[in-house]
Design goal:
This protein is an all-alpha fold and 176 residues long. The chain has eight helices and no strands. It has one domain.
């Protein structure tokens, strides 16, 4: 995992993607906050967290040929996302700890800030789980050298729920 991460971050695409998305987040966060009735700083945290998630999941994988987008990998993707044995293994397995921890931690800030702005834990957790599934499907469609795998989805979902739990705790502590 560490070698892959270093290779990935040494490419130009992650930096370009993050700078572009972070600039958009900075430019629109106050407008989004006002429009939704949310506080400005947690809204910025939410948008920057989304920028990080998209930066880590959508640019091309290192040293891979980029293919033509198409739906030919979607059936395998849906099989991976619905394989209950494989999904359960993702919950209980301890192999690939670095990748697992990275996939979990990636979604924690996103749903943490999502809860701070919306105060709707079930909606935020559900949105985090659905966003992760959508990213997996997008990876299979975009053909950027990435795979749609159920264990990434499970670990992202664990991170999404963990972010909501931490958000609930932060709200309770700050309200005392």
């Amino acid at each position: 995992m560490r070698g892959w991460a270093i290779d990935f971050l040494s490419q130009p695409w992650p930096l370009v993607t993050f700078v572009l998305l972070a600039a958009i987040a900075l430019a629109v966060h106050r407008r989004v906050a006002r429009g939704r009735g949310w506080p400005a700083w947690p809204t910025l945290g939410l948008l920057l967290s989304l920028a990080v998630v998209l930066t880590l999941t959508l640019p091309p994988a290192p040293h891979m040929l980029i293919g033509v987008p198409g739906i030919d990998g979607v059936d395998q993707c849906f099989r991976s996302l619905s394989d209950t044995g494989g999904l359960w293994h993702a919950v209980v397995a301890t192999t690939e700890r670095g990748e697992r921890v990275g996939n979990i931690l990636m979604f924690v800030p996103l749903t943490f800030f999502g809860l701070l702005v919306s105060r709707r834990p079930v909606l935020v957790a559900g949105a985090g789980v659905l966003l992760s599934a959508a990213i997996e499907v997008a990876q299979s469609v975009m053909h950027l050298g990435r795979e749609c795998v159920g264990y990434d989805w499970v670990n992202n979902a664990i991170g999404a729920v963990l972010g909501v739990v931490l958000g609930i705790l932060a709200i309770r502590v700050s309200s005392r």
